[in-house]
Amino acid sequence: MFSPDGMLIATGDDSGTVQIISVENGSVQDTYEFEIIIWDVDFRRDGKWLAVTRDDGRVTIIDIPARKRNFDLQAFGRLKIASFSPNGRYIAAGSSDGNVSLWNLSETGVVPSSRHSGEVLSLAFSPDSRYLVTGGADSVAVVARTSNGKEAYRLLQDNWVEDIAFSPDSSWFATVSDDRRIRLWNTANGRELLRMSQDGFVREVKVSANGQWLATTGADRTVRVWNASTGTQMFQIPLKGEGTVLGFSKDGHYLVAGDSTGEVNIWDISVMPAPINYLQFDGFAGDVQFSPDGNRLAASDGNRVWLLRPGQLSTLKLRPDQDTNITLDGNVSEIVFSLDSRRVGISSEQGNVVLYDFETNRLTTVKVEETGSEYALGFPPDGSRLITIGAADIPETWDVSTGSKIGTLGNYDAEITSIATAPDVMALGMLDKVIILNADNEQIAEIASPGDHKLLAFNADGSLLASSNSAGNIEVWKNESGVFRLVDSIRKEAVYSLAFNPVEDQLAVGTINNVFLIDPSTVKETSRILHAGAVTGVSYSADGRTLGTSSLKAVQFWDRAQIQRIDSSNLVQAGCARLTANFTEAQWSNLFGGEQYRKLCSNLP
Question: I want to staple 350 with a disulfide (CB 3.0 to 4.6 A). Which of 120, 330, 480, 525 is the partner?
Fold first, then answer.
């Protein structure tokens, strides 16, 4: 084990020998003979003490500056593992018979603690030193408070709990098990946040220093990197043998993985787009929308909508408990802001439609006649009415103050599937065409285009219109003096959400497992952000710098400047600049399938 300053390595072995080795020149500086098996060594965070876990139930503390044995701690049973708390105040040890010993070093006393009914296989302190989590062969993870050793709760799993790792802010921790599962838990209450799986026993888990990534490895001979906020598998690395050790570099740019054959690989993961923040919810995140003026953010969680200030995002990780929320009958299907940002319209899958006025803080229920089916929503350019399109495919208008029906927008000879508005124009999506209306609701253009046009989106000034259909075909149209010219089209998997960047030319497209960033001037993909599940909401902040996306149980926020652009003309050179060795044949097959194997990087082994 390395010392915190990286200058020393401590080792222990079956012969009972502990050595302190200089990293600079590899010389053995000190040797300690215990004449009994050494199971573990651990440096205190300040580097002044080394804990040596012995097979006779003792933990010996070595004073590193003085290079002498300081004192022994006696535990029950044959110890297998021991660790200092991050604040250096506590040390915990686990034994083969299930006992967990916890010492308060400032009081040199044992703190009564919980136990397992089988061998203790893993333990970890939270970074704030408030909690100790132990995992055992009894398939249980036990969470205890370090202040008094009392058990907070137990988490039953389906097989041995092999390893534990905390997030940097102590708000959650991960457990991995021989049941092939990776689970993330809320530290405060033990609620399960995420669950992922591998194809074999999972033996090792690590969390990156920024808390964005989770790495796991084990018996299936792979290393997997996960997005810690959503559980998305970012990539999979094949190994020659079973995975044994993992480690992230301090800056989070590199991942080190070792396997049972003795091979060690270093991977550059800095190119992966990482969210700058996220909100994790209890239910599925349905939609996320920034207001046009940039002062509000609306995000949905099941049948609830949370109305937030964007400035709150820097301090939130889990859904807020006390901020304004709106509850509907049924899961939220759509959130739409008026262009002046005064109001937000919300619809549910059960046909519940409400309006919230930010100036009066008033919630108004829209008195729709049909229930049981969801409504598409929109505001006209002046925000004076709410427009709904229900199962009857008739665009109806509603008074934004009372929620009462005003009338219909007009009579059309085709099914209306979507609506989008810009400062001077409005678009209605229909089967095989899109109708363009002016601010007076008069038809000024008709776009003939095959498909059902399930989604429409204007850019900020109405000069560009994007449409998508259920077949995954995305079209971009340019408004040239009232005539809409097709720029081009691109096909992706089924599209669930669309949004233009309000500042620069960029279109975000949410699909199954991906967000594609499209250059609307060429309708070519420029970037891709991997997700898990359907991306049901995409939205840009008013300054265009932040992209919000919703999928599964999280809303994520991405810094536009940090998202790597795809340079299709130079892919091999870019890849070789980030690799430390050519792909093995197994790695090649995993990444490229049946493509014939070849070495891509002439300058690498």
Answer: 330
